[in-house]
From TrEMBL:
<keyword id="KW-0694">RNA-binding</keyword>
<dbReference type="GO" id="GO:0006412">
    <property type="term" value="P:translation"/>
</dbReference>
<comment type="function">
    <text>Forms part of the ribosomal stalk, playing a central role in the interaction of the ribosome with GTP-bound translation factors.</text>
</comment>
<dbReference type="InterPro" id="IPR047865">
    <property type="entry name" value="Ribosomal_uL10_bac_type"/>
</dbReference>
<dbReference type="InterPro" id="IPR043141">
    <property type="entry name" value="Ribosomal_uL10-like_sf"/>
</dbReference>
<dbReference type="GO" id="GO:0070180">
    <property type="term" value="F:large ribosomal subunit rRNA binding"/>
</dbReference>
<dbReference type="InterPro" id="IPR022973">
    <property type="entry name" value="Ribosomal_uL10_bac"/>
</dbReference>
<dbReference type="GO" id="GO:0005840">
    <property type="term" value="C:ribosome"/>
</dbReference>
<comment type="similarity">
    <text>Belongs to the universal ribosomal protein uL10 family.</text>
</comment>
<keyword id="KW-0687">Ribonucleoprotein</keyword>
<protein>
    <recommendedName>
        <fullName>Large ribosomal subunit protein uL10</fullName>
    </recommendedName>
</protein>
<keyword id="KW-0699">rRNA-binding</keyword>
<keyword id="KW-0689">Ribosomal protein</keyword>
<dbReference type="InterPro" id="IPR001790">
    <property type="entry name" value="Ribosomal_uL10"/>
</dbReference>
<dbReference type="GO" id="GO:1990904">
    <property type="term" value="C:ribonucleoprotein complex"/>
</dbReference>
<comment type="subunit">
    <text>Part of the ribosomal stalk of the 50S ribosomal subunit. The N-terminus interacts with L11 and the large rRNA to form the base of the stalk. The C-terminus forms an elongated spine to which L12 dimers bind in a sequential fashion forming a multimeric L10(L12)X complex.</text>
</comment>
<dbReference type="Pfam" id="PF00466">
    <property type="entry name" value="Ribosomal_L10"/>
</dbReference>
Amino acid sequence: MAITRKEKESILASLTELLKKARGVVFTEYRGMTVKQMNLVRRNLRKENVQYQVVKVTLLKKAMEALGIKTDGMKYTGPVAIAVSEEEETTPARVLKGMTKENPQLILDGGIFNSELVDATVVSRLATLPTKQQLLGQLVSVIAGPARGLVTVLFGNTRNLLNVLNAIKDKRSN
């Protein structure tokens, strides 16, 4: 069933708004996947607060052009599915990359990063980055490292002094 011009304009407006808010966008090809597999992909992405939807390439290009993103490198001929995260840049790439092992038909084709069109190699590299929570944990560990070292050094001198005093006490009591 054909979509009317008014419906296309509505879809274009919502897609443009979605891409404007997006921090991470990944394009995927999904040909050959069953409905059950697509639902599993959507469910896993939804757990991470990532929207996943199939869009027409022409509408996607128009939405990207409206946001000032160059579409010269887009090579799609049919519909494409996009995964969009408003919270974290790497989440869509990380989740989809993990799902490609179970669903080889799911192909990561590229995405949008820092308002630029990127290819599949950049998306694959983004997928290997740690999550925001993991990075914050690493930062806290690095910041706490010198303080932990100082406490260890200070405690070591005190411990050595106590060992010497205990040895002197034991020698005098004998």
